[in-house]
Give the backbone structure.
Amino acid sequence: MLRWPLKLRVSNASAIVGRTHVSVWWHAASVQDVGAMAAELRKLVATGRERLSILLVVEPDAGLSPQEPRRAALAMLRELGQRICAIAVVIEGGGFRGSGIRAMFSTMALLLRMPFNWLAFAGVQEAVRWLQTRGETGVRDEADLLNAVAALRPHSLAGGE
């Protein structure tokens, strides 16, 4: 159910599923990556009056983005925030690193007071279920979002299993 062709970049891959922007990140984001994501979101916003959802999955070995891409991401969220229903950020990986990064995202969500729900999760299935409860993903079956994440993972893109 991918509506738009897959977008493949050095650090991530993305696709649109229903009214949900799905991306999988295996390297830290650059300012250019954030700009490309913003362009995709603007295009999705332009397709209708409904709000959109974002499912962002960060692979366990992805590094933390430097300050400039984080600033660009914040500007993007402020620009498009009224059109976003919910964002689920999946920070995979256990232990202190994964927990610490999830806590950082959760704290940011509280401090920034954006006009949408924003939560961090340890797993994709939990994040997808939460997004579905928000009601504006544009998909009826959570399997559509789970399958999109699986298709966007680096080993899938490389032809692996």
